[in-house]
Every structure is written in structure tokens, then in C-alpha cells.
Design a protein that fits this description.
Helix content: 25-40%
CATH superfamily: PAC-like subunit
CATH architecture: 3-Layer(aba) Sandwich
Number of helices: 7
Shape: globular
Largest sheet: 9 strands, mixed
Strand order of the largest sheet: 1-3-6-7-2-8-11-9-10
Radius of gyration: 17 Å
CATH topology: Rossmann fold
């Protein structure tokens, strides 16, 4: 195994629901997950490193290097605790993505995880004025649970394969008998565009369904900070992907819908 999961702090975790949001089209999932971590004041409990992550480091605001990592945060709640998986990168190739998702699912099973929600974007050639939100899942009951008039489950023909952790985690969770749903918002597919409107639509849905009591107006206030942080990391990750593509066979495609 090339995926290493380090426990940062111990916590009693009660029948959790995992929400995943990593970089992808419009960074919709990442924006939503980062906002959840801040708004819920969630505490970091796991740090994940992998040889399947980009072979580079980020320079932090102290002028020191940070290895690429993905983190899992914890928010205690009376019935189902919330776990949030957030980060600045995704695994770069198919094998690494499978291995990463399996390693995460091992941890989730240890904590008796009840559901998984993955968040991502659906790329469009133009900026959507009112982004539509779609869902798919590994079983029908979880779709019924999260169904609202704002969430369209008629996704067949709307998107192609859901590439990356956002899709694969849902698929592999079925082998562990963990209900999982992917919630995807329309966004502009330009690499520098941030799908904040789409992220807000997704957050509105899960806020109501999970009773998270989020102040979504605060997302508007944080837009400048989000744009600065996400744009910088996304630009660096995009350069890494382009560099890798030059050295890969023509048939290899490194891209993410999440």
C-alpha cells in the first residue's frame, strides 16, 4: 500500500456521515468542503499522504514546504457525527485512486460509517446563471432520502463517467455495503473558474437534509479568501497535470469531474 493514513487526534466517532469535496471541475466540491470545515469548526483527525499524489510540494505562508495531503475532519453531533474529507489534490492515476479510496473505506468501516456524500461539478461550455444540481448513488434508498425539488436524479445522459474520488468512492462503497451518493452541480468548465454558485446550491441541499445550521450568506463574505487560496493551489495542480501528460501515452487522460 502506498497510501499512508496518520491519525492526528483521537475522537469518539458516532455513526458518522462522510462528506467528500476535493479539487475538480470548478472546484465545486473543494469549495463546499472547505466551507463546511470552517463553518462547523471541525477538528482534523486524519492526514493522508500517498505516493499516488503529485510529486511536488506546496510553499506555505511561512516559506516552508508542505507535502500534498488530504485531510479528514470531525464534527460531533447527537445522532450522526459528520466527517469531512478535504484537500488540495487528488490521486493522479487510476491505480492510485482505487488504492486511495479503498484505504479511506477501511477507515470509514472501522468507524461504522452510515453514509457517504461526495460533492463535485458538471462542466458546461458557458457559465450557468442558475446551476442545476444532479445526483447519482450506489442504491436507490439514499437517493430518496436526499431527494428535493432542487436535486434532479435523472442524470443518465447528462454526464459521462464520473472520474476521480468523487465517483469511485461511491462505487467502491457499494462493495462495503455503505450507502453513498454523489451530488453534482453545474459549473463552467474553464480551468480558472471557481464554481461558487454551484457549491452554494449543493450546500443548501445538504444543509437542509442534515440540519447543519450553516450560514450560507457567510460564503459570499468569504469568496475573496476562497478565490485566492483555491486559485493558487488549482493553478499549481494544473501545471503538474500538464507536465505529467507530456510524459504519458496518448491514451492516458488525467481529469476529474469531481
Amino acid at each position: 500500500m502506498t497510501t499512508k493514513i496518520k491519525q492526528i487526534s483521537k475522537a469518539k466517532i458516532n455513526n458518522p456521515i462522510l462528506i467528500e469535496g476535493l479539487p475538480g471541475i470548478g472546484n465545486v466540491g473543494k469549495i463546499a468542503a472547505d466551507f463546511l470545515v470552517d463553518s462547523l469548526n471541525a477538528k482534523k483527525i486524519y492526514e493522508i499522504h500517498s505516493y499516488g499524489f503529485p510529486h511536488s510540494v506546496f510553499i506555505n505562508d511561512e516559506n516552508l514546504v508542505d507535502l500534498p495531503k488530504i485531510e479528514i475532519y470531525h464534527k460531533p453531533r447527537p445522532k450522526n457525527d459528520i466527517l469531512i474529507m478535504a484537500g488540495d489534490i487528488q490521486p493522479l492515476d487510476e491505480k492510485s485512486c482505487y488504492e486511495f479510496c479503498d484505504a479511506v473505506l477501511d477507515i470509514l468501516q472501522q468507524h461504522n460509517t452510515k453514509e457517504i456524500i461526495t460533492l463535485g461539478g458538471i462542466g458546461l461550455p458557458k457559465i450557468p446563471k442558475n446551476p442545476k444540481v444532479y445526483c447519482t448513488a450506489n442504491e436507490k434508498p439514499i437517493i430518496e432520502k436526499y431527494r428535493t425539488k432542487e436535486l434532479d436524479s435523472n442524470i443518465f445522459g447528462v454526464v459521462g463517467p464520473i472520474i476521480g474520488v468523487t465517483g469511485l468512492l461511491v462505487g467502491l462503497a457499494s462493495q462495503r455495503k455503505i450507502p453513498a451518493i454523489a451530488i453534482l452541480a453545474q459549473t463552467y468548465s474553464h480551468p480558472t473558474y471557481l464554481g461558487i454558485k454551484g457549491a452554494k446550491e449543493i450546500l443548501d441541499i445538504i444543509n437542509k437534509k442534515l440540519n447543519l445550521k450553516l450560514d450560507l450568506e457567510a460564503l459570499n463574505e468569504e469568496i475573496k479568501d476562497i478565490e485566492k487560496e483555491v486559485s493558487l493551489k488549482s493553478h499549481e495542480f494544473e501545471k503538474i497535470q500538464k507536465t505529467l501528460k507530456k510524459g504519458l501515452p496518448q491514451k492516458t487522460d488525467i481529469s476529474y469531474i469531481g
